[in-house]
UniProtKB/TrEMBL annotation, chains A, B:
Key word DNA-binding present: yes
Protein name, entry field: Lrp/AsnC family transcriptional regulator
InterPro entries in UniProt: ArsR-like_HTH (IPR011991), AsnC-type_HTH_dom (IPR000485), Dimeric_a/b-barrel (IPR011008), Tscrpt_reg_AsnC-like (IPR019888), Tscrpt_reg_AsnC/Lrp_C (IPR019887), Tscrpt_reg_HTH_AsnC-type_CS (IPR019885), WH-like_DNA-bd_sf (IPR036388), WH_DNA-bd_sf (IPR036390)
UniProt key word Ubl conjugation: no
DNA sequence: AGTGAAACCCTACCAGC
DNA sequence: GCTGGTAGGGTTTCACT
């Protein structure tokens, strides 16, 4: 269904929750001029409609021992085979994101590992799991990431 | 209790909060075998140490009217100038992420817009704001994104 | 660091409009 | 869809270990 006209109050709620996923319904109510119950209703509706996919904590991976991030673009070695790379790679925990893209390569992966040696090992696992060639771009720093574009 | 046990409990808490940022301290306690107060203490410490950067709701951008995502790699036109692209681009709301990378280009941006026409407009704004050449890779679909790599 | 108790606040549900 | 009310549960602090 394409009846997705999100009105400004819902948009404001999404904006607030994108910035602080633990904000209480009471505070959301104060920020939007609605009662707690009304906000509660709206948030539950946004959740059930899938507009809110979920809630998560943002972790500092460098402090956690995963300082090395990289983009790995992949391309099938045998283009006659059906490309089910996402399913084949899904079990590899180091892969944070997988995007299907237009262009030279078929997918872009974003990964996190502790050390260059782990990256080398990961590349070998990706190549053999999905039968693909890879191109790797190392992330040097992250000025900002996952900002809300609501 | 030894140091490694402490570490693994914190790690478990981070894992749980990464998967569900609104999980209650009560439930975190049940999942880790700690009292509510102990979990509360640990989470507050993880927050103040910056291990937890924040909490956010994950929004379905397609439903929100932003179905077009893309990666834009940028490269300075005049390499003799200092490269302060991140600050110059920070005000552009369509840019969700900005990574400094090793390789042909200096930064990779991830952006979201409603239509191809908006992308065209955005590219012009990026080029003139940061004095850069751009290379754009359109995202066709997103099998998965921002999975927890804890 | 962890526990349990208590005060306080929030959530979730219910009528009623 | 919104409001106010309420019961139950969650959060936060505190004294103690």
């Amino acid at each position: 269904m394409t009846q997705s006209e999100v009105e400004s109050t819902d948009r404001r709620i999404l904006e607030l929750l994108a910035a602080d996923g633990r904000m209480s319904f009471t505070d959301l109510g104060k920020a939007t001029g609605l009662s707690t119950s009304a906000v509660h209703q709206r948030v539950k509706r946004l959740e059930s409609r899938g507009m809110i996919r979920g809630y998560g904590a943002t972790i500092d991976h460098e402090q956690l021992g995963l300082p090395l991030a990289a983009f790995i673009s992949i391309r099938p070695i045998d283009p006659s085979q059906p490309d089910d790379s996402p399913e084949r790679l899904q079990g590899i925990r180091e892969i944070e994101s997988c995007w299907s893209v237009a262009g030279e390569e078929s997918y872009i992966l974003k990964i996190r590992v502790p050390t260059p040696a782990d990256l080398e090992d990961l590349l070998a696992r990706i190549r053999s799991a999905a039968n693909v060639a890879t191109r790797t771009t190392i992330v040097l720093s992250t000025p900002y990431e996952n900002r809300s574009v609501v």
